[in-house]
């Protein structure tokens, strides 16, 4: 999903989650609900965690420092911390490295294109170039 540059990623989270399709090994239709969501601290909000809980999706999202401080300040009334597995969260490194490789393309990093379709086409072309370079090795 492509949003304007000044829109927070967390506001589009529900729409992105609705667009998820996970192919199956068999010929059955793809799954629409992932088993787990890996996110960075930007996705650590009550609304996102409640959305994932309602849909039965496990969340591996670290807690922000301000949320941690507020929970500790409240003491017993602060509730328990959300579950977080460091080992599983290490897999997020793959996504961050992919973003870093895509940003090697200047037009993508600075977003020269004003129209969303052209920018999306640039991202697709850059992804294909990276994929072809990897398979050539």
Can you put this structure into words, describing what you see?
Strands 1-2 form a two-stranded parallel ribbon. It has helices spanning 13-18, 46-55, 65-74, 86-89, 93-102, 106-110, 116-136; strands spanning 36-38, 58-60. It has a domain at 9-85. The protein is built from seven helices and two strands; from the N terminus they run αβαβααααα. It is globular.
Share of helix among residues? Answer: 40-55%
In round numbers, the mean pLDDT is 87
Largest beta sheet: what is the strand line-up? 1-2
Number of helices: 7
Q: What is the N-to-C succession of helices and strands?
A: HEHEHHHHH
The proportion of residues in beta strands is under 5%
Distance between the termini: 30 Å
Low-confidence stretches: none
SS-derived structural category: mainly alpha
Query: What is the general shape?
Result: globular
Rounded to the nearest angstrom, the radius of gyration is: 18 Å
- The count of DSSP E runs of length 2 or more, i.e. the number of strands, is 2
Main sheet summary = 2 strands, parallel
In brief:
This protein has a domain at 9-85. It is 48% helix and 4% strand. The chain has helices spanning 13-18, 46-55, 65-74, 86-89, 93-102, 106-110, 116-136, and strands at residues 36-38, 58-60.
Spell out the blueprint of helices and strands:
Blueprint: H1 13-18, E1 36-38, H2 46-55, E2 58-60, H3 65-74, H4 86-89, H5 93-102, H6 106-110, H7 116-136
Features:
7 helices; two-stranded parallel ribbon; mainly alpha; 137 residues
């Amino acid at each position: 999903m492509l949003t304007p540059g000044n829109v927070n990623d967390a506001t589009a989270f529900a729409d992105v989650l609705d667009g998820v399709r996970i192919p199956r090994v068999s010929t059955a239709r793809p799954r629409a609900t992932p088993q787990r969501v890996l996110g960075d601290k930007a996705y650590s909000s009550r609304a996102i965690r409640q959305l994932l809980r309602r849909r039965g999706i496990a969340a591996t999202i670290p807690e922000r420092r301000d949320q941690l401080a507020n929970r500790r300040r409240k003491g017993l009334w602060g509730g328990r911390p959300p579950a977080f597995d460091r080992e599983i969260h290490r897999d997020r490194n793959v996504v961050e490295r992919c973003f870093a490789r895509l940003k090697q393309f200047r037009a993508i990093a600075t977003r020269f294109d004003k129209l969303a379709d052209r920018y999306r086409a640039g991202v697709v072309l850059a992804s294909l170039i990276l994929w072809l370079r990897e398979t050539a090795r």
